[in-house]
Design goal:
Largest sheet: 8 strands, mixed
Radius of gyration: 20 Å
Strand order of the largest sheet: 3-2-1-4-5-8-9-10
Low-confidence stretches: 1-25
CATH class: Alpha Beta
Number of helices: 9
CATH superfamily: NAD(P)-binding Rossmann-like Domain
Number of domains: 1
Order of helices and strands: HEHEHEHEHEEEHEHEHEH
Length: 244
């Protein structure tokens, strides 16, 4: 009996070690550029999943940034935007959509890095709603890709409010996060982050479809404007459903 207990204990220790190794192997350094609502939501969530967070801020020594770093924990730090990206595997552009391209250009060489783009550029109509996503014939994500041609841009997290990123259960049901990007491995990494947060990733393919995601935000915003707020949920068909 003692031998059995020892064997079980050894097996449990081995499994714990394997889990720790696996977690370390998948850990990334993530630069979160911007410390507003979206950056303050995603940074702590990603840190809780075991990733190292470096906030890039124009004012890294301001008290509100220090408070965010403390709240994030897990060894998070803050520095300038250009410094934050240097050792990062993933760069999150948690900045106003209209500034995203210029900020991307200011960050220096982003070759090989994944750029997570949750931005939107929305044009308001004549006071009764939103007309379009603000980039006729294209998308903000594609403009960001053009500004960093050797990076891997992935569009995600632009179709929901930041409060749902922090607390998906407050939606009252599942919330889908559409994802597009030209690099399949980069999309898969972002999908892992989405799953870890309790949201449901939906892979929609290459970056040229980013305009679709940005138009989805227009629908979402108009619904809220007219008193019918909701969240996207793309319900999967059963495996037995016939192909059409």
């Amino acid at each position: 009996m003692q031998r059995l207990r020892s064997s079980i204990a050894a097996a449990a220790a081995a499994l714990s070690l394997a889990a720790a190794i696996a977690a370390t192997a998948h850990a990334e350094t993530i630069a979160v550029i911007g410390t507003g609502n979206v950056g303050s939501a995603l940074g702590p969530e990603f840190a809780a999943l075991g990733h190292t967070i470096v906030y890039g801020s124009r004012t890294p020594n301001e008290q509100d940034v220090k408070d965010l770093v403390a709240r994030t924990g897990h060894g998070a730090t803050a520095t300038t935007q250009a410094e934050a990206v240097k050792g990062a595997d993933i760069v999150v552009l948690a900045v106003p959509g209209a500034l995203a391209v210029d900020i991307t250009k200011s960050l220096g060489d982003l070759s090989g890095k994944i750029i997570l783009d949750p931005t939107n550029v929305v044009n308001r109509n004549t006071g009764d709603g939103y007309a379009n996503h603000g980039v006729p014939g294209g998308s903000n994500a594609e403009l960001i890709q053009a500004a960093a041609p050797n990076a891997k841009v992935v569009k995600a997290f632009n179709t929901l409010n930041w409060t749902k990123m922090v607390d998906p259960q407050s939606s009252g049901g599942p919330v889908s996060i559409p994802i597009v990007g030209d690099d399949a491995e980069a999309r898969a990494k972002i999908a892992e982050l989405v799953k870890g947060m309790g949201l449901e990733p939906v892979d929609l393919g290459p970056l040229r479809f980013a305009n679709t995601l940005e138009e989805m935000l227009v629908i979402w915003a108009n619904a809220r404007t007219h008193g019918a707020p909701y969240n996207y949920y793309l319900r999967p068909e059963p495996a037995s459903a016939p192909a059409r």
